[in-house]
Write a structure and sequence with these properties.
This protein is α+β, with helices and mostly antiparallel strands. The chain folds into two domains: 119 residues, Immunoglobulin-like (Sandwich), CATH 2.60.40.2250; 149 residues, C8orf32 fold, CATH 3.10.620. 22% of the residues lie in helices and 39% in strands. The strands form five sheets. Strands 1, 3, 6, 16 and 17 form a five-stranded antiparallel β-sheet that branches. A four-stranded antiparallel β-sheet has the order 4-5-2-15, with no helix packed on it. Helix 2 crosses helix 5. The C terminus is likely disordered.
């Protein structure tokens, strides 16, 4: 399908302030199934912009502001081709079909950072929660285990929209039995790390109205499976991501994948933030794009 994604973020202050450098991550990650057809990024006040990629290949716009202002506006408008694929159509190496399994030494070295817990103080609570899905000495189908964890979060925990910044710790989410999509993704990826599986946080967009809106920013997780590579799991919906999910950024730490990261200086009062996200399907994927994807 062809999607148009518009994302506007506006910060307002009681008087002019000076803005520090801002990191903006709103450009989707291209790959064999996603190709950006056109894109534009508008930012005010006056600024200089540099594009780069971080260690995960995320597209980052680094903004240096050259004048103070009482309002900061960031607007991204892009069109992309997203090939519809079967999320279960992938191959696992024979040794990874059943859990537990171990990565080979070279893969372990490459994935080292994504195997370490972000919330080590919560490890005991997470491991206790995991006992209902797997216990030491048991052998279980790897995908079945991951889907049990994924589906249980969606079934047992209550989804809520949280306006507060940041992410709940896994222990807090377990205690409250509720959270936002980013909280559920964080619980899932830390559970995977407790199992010795490399995982990373994903932020992006979603077309479906399953979360009570026509479109929204969204968060889910990815797990590295030998043979299959990085495979997505959406614990908010209890499913594997589809063409309605558009990934923008991945990170070891959930708070490093936010769309906008920056600061301001001054005595002004922050009056609030407005975020408007629109994701609309504007047509089928072109034959040329589909052909290019197949060749890739």
């Amino acid at each position: 399908m062809k999607l148009r994604i518009q994302h506007r973020t506006t910060y307002r202050y009681s008087e002019k302030v000076q803005f520090g450098p801002h990191r903006i991550m709103v450009r989707p990650r291209e790959g064999h199934d996603i190709q950006i057809e056109r894109s534009s990024l508008e930012v005010s006040p006056a600024h200089r912009i540099q594009w780069s990629q971080d260690v995960y290949g995320n597209n980052i716009a680094l903004i240096q502001f050259t004048e103070p202002a009482s309002e900061l506006m960031i607007y991204s408008d892009l069109v992309l081709q997203h090939l519809e694929t079967n999320p279960f159509d992938f191959f696992l190496e024979p040794e990874a079909v059943q859990y537990p399994f171990s990565y080979d030494p070279e893969t372990t070295l490459e994935l080292a950072g994504l195997l370490h817990l972000v919330y080590p103080d919560d490890a005991a609570a997470v491991r206790e929660w995991l006992h209902q899905f797997w216990y030491p000495g048991q052998t279980i189908d790897t995908l079945a285990l991951l889907q049990k964890i994924n589906g249980s979060i969606q079934y047992v925990f209550a989804y809520q929209v949280r306006e507060e910044a940041g992410v709940q710790s896994p222990a807090e989410t377990l205690k409250k039995k509720s959270g936002s999509c980013r909280d559920f993704a964080t619980l899932f990826l830390e559970a995977c790390r407790c199992l010795g599986l490399a995982s990373r946080f994903v932020s992006g967009y979603m077309l479906s109205g399953a979360l009570g809106a026509d479109a929204s920013t969204h968060a889910w997780a990815e797990v590295y499976l030998p043979g299959g590579g990085w495979k997505g799991f959406d614990p908010t919906l209890g499913l594997l991501p589809t063409s309605q999910h558009v990934p923008v950024a991945v990170s070891r730490h959930p708070e490093n994948a936010m769309p906008v990261i920056g600061s301001y200086f001054g005595s002004a009062q922050a009056l609030g933030i407005e975020v408007d996200v629109r994701v609309e399907e504007i047509g089928p994927i072109s034959q040329q794009a589909q052909s290019m994807v197949k060749i890739a």
